[in-house]
C-alpha cells in the first residue's frame, strides 16, 4: 500500500479495507495482508502505519528479498 496516493492516501485506504462493513461482505476466512510502502521513511512512520491496521512497513527503494521476507 503506497502511503502517498492521490485522493485517498494509504492510511485512509487501509481504514476502508479494515472496516467491518467491508469485511461483512468478504467471504474469505483470512485477513488480507497490507504492507505499507513509502519513499518518505520518517521516524514514527512505521508505528503510524501499524496503528492504522497495516501488517508491516517497508521503505523504497524496495529490494525483492526484503519484500519476500516480510510476515514469514
Walk me through the structure.
By secondary structure, the protein is an alpha+beta fold. The protein has one domain: 3-Layer(aba) Sandwich (Rossmann fold). The chain is built from four helices and two strands; from the N terminus they run H-H-E-H-E-H. The protein has helices spanning 10-18, 20-24, 45-51, 64-69; strands at 35-38, 56-59. It has a two-stranded parallel sheet with strand order 1-2. Strand 1 (35-38), helix 3 (45-51) and strand 2 (56-59) form a beta-alpha-beta unit. It is globular, with a radius of gyration of 13 Å. It starts with 9 loop residues before the first helix and ends with a helix.
How far apart are the termini? 18 Å
Q: Class in CATH?
A: Alpha Beta
General form: globular
Derived from helix and strand composition plus strand pairing, the structural class reads: alpha+beta
How helical, in percent, are the residues?
A: 25-40%
Helical run tally: 4
How many β-strands, per DSSP? 2
CATH architecture: 3-Layer(aba) Sandwich
The largest sheet is: 2 strands, parallel
Placed side by side, the strands forming the largest sheet appear as 1-2
Average pLDDT value? 84
Task: Note the beta-strand portion.
Answer: 5-15%
CATH names the topology as Rossmann fold
Number of domains: 1
Instruction: Tell me the name of the CATH homologous superfamily.
Output: Response regulator
